[in-house]
Design a protein that fits this description.
Layout lengths: L5 E5 L3 H13 L3 E5 L2 H10 L4 E5 L7 H11 L5 E5 L4 H9 L4 E4 L4 H14 L8 E4 L2 E4 L4 E4 L2 E2 L4 H12 L4 E3 H9 L8 H13 L8 E4 L3 E4 L5
Parallel strand pairs: 1-2, 1-3, 3-4, 4-5
Antiparallel strand pairs: 6-7, 7-8, 8-9, 10-12, 11-12
Length: 229
């Protein structure tokens, strides 16, 4: 990221607000929140944001109306709409009202991040290298290819998302709860043991049999060390 991007979240669900705020702040974004459409419009008129994440179902108005009003005074800011509505007509309505992208709930946090990065790239705020190199592992976030010492590793989407998170934040300690939210989504209602299963599969595919790359932090979670085996 060339500089810290300022993102305004217009959303009234406290669970989603917390989920987005914690995750995006961890990624280095500067986060501002409005729990209503009118408050969000006021903030957008008074401040310079690099992007807004806009929910369609708001307590005082709908996101389509907010989006149209934003476009009446700001034609450049990227707008990502969030909604539980999955009908094609709603997506078309959102895009026609001026949104740049559309994501339905529940959503995967890594997918949200990818869309945010894409919108910020298009607006000229960031220029991101699609290759992540850590130790002897190379990841291409555009082609979704992963290589270790030049050899392809076939990963599931969940494993890819988890490894990308680890590689972007080497030596950071992630709790199982954080990994659960980031990789499987805020709406996942299963136990955190599923994270141990995914980590076990990742280690096996990376020949990390002694847990030297993905290390267990007792009673906490996991951390990633970019070493060559």
């Amino acid at each position: 990221m060339n500089k810290k991007a300022k993102i305004l979240i217009i959303e009234d669900d406290p669970v989603i607000i917390e989920f987005l705020s914690i995750g995006l702040k961890y990624e280095g974004y500067e986060i501002f929140v409005s729990d209503s459409g009118n408050k969000g419009l006021k903030l957008l008129k008074e401040n310079n944001f690099n992007m807004t994440i806009l929910d369609i179902m708001l307590p005082d108005t709908d996101g389509f109306n907010v989006c149209r009003q934003i476009r009446s005074f700001n034609s450049d800011i990227p707008i990502l709409m969030l909604t539980v509505k999955k009908e094609v007509t709603d997506r078309i309505k959102g895009l026609d009202s001026g949104a740049d992208d559309y994501l339905t709930k529940p959503f995967n946090f890594e997918e949200l991040l990818a869309r945010i990065r894409a919108l910020l790239r298009r607006s000229g705020h960031i220029s991101e290298n699609k290759l992540i190199i850590s130790g002897n592992i190379t990841m291409n976030t555009e082609t979704l290819e992963v290589k270790q010492s030049g050899k392809h590793i076939n990963l599931t989407p969940t494993e890819f998302g988890m490894l990308e998170l680890f590689m972007r934040h080497p030596r950071k300690v992630f709790t199982r709860e954080t990994l659960l939210n980031r990789v499987l989504g805020y709406d996942y209602d299963g136990g955190t043991n599923i994270i141990d299963v995914h980590v076990s599969h990742l280690r096996k595919k990376m020949n990390d049999n002694k847990a030297q790359i993905i290390r267990t932090i007792h009673r906490v979670g996991y951390t990633y060390y970019p070493i060559e085996l």
